Amino acid sequence: MQEKHGITNMQKKHCITYIQSTFGNTIITLTDYDGNTKTWASSGSVGFKGSRRSTNYAAQATAENAARAAIQLGFKFVEVRIKGLGYGKESSLRGLKLGGLIITKIRDVTPTPHNGCRPPKKRRV
């Protein structure tokens, strides 16, 4: 089962998928376990322009496009890490599944402040 550099066949079929969902776009990046980017897709690269990039349908189409590229590279199982507050979080997961990938783990890595920056002062009218 071991190959030249200590990488098993199981690790070759696994990859990590990062979904960055903002209010203007959805970016999906597929990496191996070392963090090297293998392929990526965004709503803009799929063909959506302007305000249509932030829709659920655009996120799902982007995920399907990324899943097709991952399958061509030989990946089958994905570990998903979701970041952001955008509209395309659930629909991008649906798109990965429709694209033929098997989701093994889902993690939300959205950064949350522990009451970080001081807000601006109140507006006086």
UniProtKB/TrEMBL annotation:
One of its GO terms (molecular function) is structural constituent of ribosome. Keywords: Mitochondrion, Ribonucleoprotein, Ribosomal protein. GO terms for biological process: translation. It comes from the Eukaryota. This is Ribosomal protein S11. Belongs to the universal ribosomal protein uS11 family. GO terms for cellular component: ribonucleoprotein complex; ribosome. It comes from Pleurozia purpurea. The gene is rps11. InterPro entries: Ribosomal_uS11 (IPR001971), Ribosomal_uS11_CS (IPR018102), Ribosomal_uS11_sf (IPR036967). NCBIfam families: PRK05309.1.
